[in-house]
Design a protein that fits this description.
Blueprint lengths: L51 E7 L2 E4 L2 H11 L6 E4 L12 H7 L4 E4 L4 E3 L7 E7 L14 E6 L5 E3 L17 H11 L4 E4 L4 E5 L4 E4 L5 E8 L10 H4 L16 E4 L5 H11 L6 E9 L1 H18 L7 E8 L1 H10 L3 H4 L11 E4 L2 H5 L10 E9 L3 E3 L19 E3 L7 E4 L5 E10 L5
Parallel strand pairs: 18-19
Antiparallel strand pairs: 1-2, 1-6, 3-4, 4-5, 5-6, 7-8, 7-12, 9-10, 10-11, 11-12, 13-14, 14-21, 15-17, 16-20, 17-21, 19-20
GO molecular function: NAD+ poly-ADP-ribosyltransferase activity; NAD+-protein mono-ADP-ribosyltransferase activity
GO cellular component, one term: nucleus
Family: Belongs to the ARTD/PARP family.
């Protein structure tokens, strides 16, 4: 996929793109639920699947942090006592294609974010980079359920951060302010350039938003003030399919059906996303159809394996789940849908240079070479959801991955190149799922 700049006409920028310049530095509230009417023509705001995302400025352009980096920054930012955050370095063995441009900038080193200066810094780099947080509208001026709630804090006599309207850590009720955090937020949004005055039983104060300080008008004592986003409580909205352990976007199925194909229409966003995976590299591909494969009996083993490895690795990010390609013949497609990929049953046309397992690729062009035309000229490309995890270079003698000295467990996947892999070899059917079938034609020869 080409991660385009939103200054190009008609391009809507998503938080998972590399470039994140937007005309209006906010999160589009409608993008969270795929309801933005301007997505196809070019929305002026950043699109994301959550209410905030962090960016850094590099070479005069705003760059989107990867999702795991943005989450780390946000989690620390929500704690008023924290003014710094360490950003987890990239793991080169688990580097997704969409992360490579950011990896070129940050490398494998640890970077520190400073929320007061809004900079990220590194001891070995003389240059610091500006960062910013994009979010949906403040709840002080928006009634949307996806708006961002901001809370205001001051540091009290015991150096504890106290939210305005609450009693501070001394327990002295007379020092409780007569304004709430929400009232301060409303003034900040509407008229943040002016001073905001309030009082408690003993003193009068003013808030200087330009300096982010609270000043006692009688004693002159100044205290630091912080505006932080409220920690959002996860919403429990599990539908029946999610309770049963199935993806929420699947169409309803009869319990008697072990597997079904759902034909996607070209008007669906899901169709466009899958189509772009192929046509980004196979530019002369003409899509005939895209089908979603719904097989509860193949999906649940993958989900169980994911939950098992999250417990072992301690992080969902370390699963390194990717959408990979597998070109195949028309007479094998149905067997894959029913049985999953299995080179022992379906054979292999790629050899076994990197291990005796099932082969996938992150290159559509590479996998295209193995999607042989049938009698009508149609080709078939499978798009699989693959649990890549930790990788190591494979060889033809491997019947399973070797032991990873870091985790003490087997590597999850063998690859052709540890730094820039194109080929991924899997040995356990629980670690991949055939998600889509793309039927297409091209002008290329077999």
């Amino acid at each position: 996929m080409e991660y385009s700049n939103t200054k190009d006409k008609g391009i809507t920028s998503w938080s998972y793109y590399h470039l994140g310049d937007v005309e209006i530095p906010e999160i589009c509230v409608y993008s969270i639920e795929n309801r933005c009417q301007y997505e196809k023509t070019g929305c002026k705001r950043l699109h994301a699947k959550c209410a905030c995302h962090w960016q850094m400025k590099y070479d005069e352009k705003w760059i989107n942090f990867r999702l795991f980096q943005s989450r780390e920054l946000e989690e620390s930012f929500q704690d008023p006592a924290k003014n710094e955050c360490s950003i987890t370095p990239f793991d080169t063995k688990m580097l997704e294609p969409s992360s490579r441009d950011m990896f070129k900038i940050l490398g494998v080193e640890m970077w520190e974010a400073n929320f007061k200066l809004m900079l990220i810094m590194n001891d070995s780099h003389s240059q610091a980079y500006t960062i910013r947080r994009l979010s949906t509208h403040s709840s002080a001026i928006s009634n949307s359920a996806k708006s961002t709630v901001f809370e205001w804090y001051f540091v009290d006599k015991n150096n504890k951060w106290t939210k305005y309207g609450d009693t501070d850590s001394t327990g002295n009720i007379s020092l409780t302010s007569n304004v709430t955090s929400n009232e301060i937020e409303k003034h900040f949004i509407i008229n943040g350039k002016s001073l905001f005055k309030f009082k408690n039983a003993d003193f009068e104060y003013e808030l200087d938003f330009s300096k982010m300080i609270q000043r006692n008008l009688k004693t002159g004592k100044e205290r630091e003030v912080r505006r932080r986003s409220q920690k959002r409580v996860p919403e429990l909205q599990l539908n029946k399919k999610e309770v049963e352990g199935l993806p929420s976007h699947w169409d309803p199925m009869n319990k008697s059906d072990p597997m079904t194909h759902v034909l996607l229409t070209s008007s669906q966003k899901e169709y466009a996303e899958v189509e772009s995976l192929l046509t980004a590299e196979v530019t002369n591909a003409h899509i005939i159809s895209i089908n979603r494969i719904q097989s509860p009996f193949l999906w649940r083993p993958l989900k169980n394996k994911m939950e098992e490895l999250v417990l072992k690795y301690g992080s969902e990010q370390k699963l390194n789940m990717q959408k990979l390609f597998h070109g195949t013949k028309s007479d094998i497609v149905d067997k894959i849908c029913k049985e999953n990929f299995d080179w022992r049953l379906h054979g292999t046309s790629t050899g076994q240079l990197y291990g005796r397992g099932t082969y996938f690729s992150n290159s559509a062009a590479y996998s295209h070479n193995y999607s042989h035309s049938d009698s009508s000229g149609s080709r078939f490309m499978m798009v699989a959801r693959v649990l890549v995890g930790y990788t190591v270079k494979g060889d033809s003698s491997m019947t399973r991955p070797p032991t990873n000295p870091t985790t003490g467990m087997l590597y999850d996947t063998t690859v052709d190149d540890e730094i820039n892999p194109k080929i991924f070899v899997k040995y356990d059917k629980q670690e991949y799922y055939p998600e889509y079938i793309i039927e297409y034609t091209t002008n290329l020869q077999n």
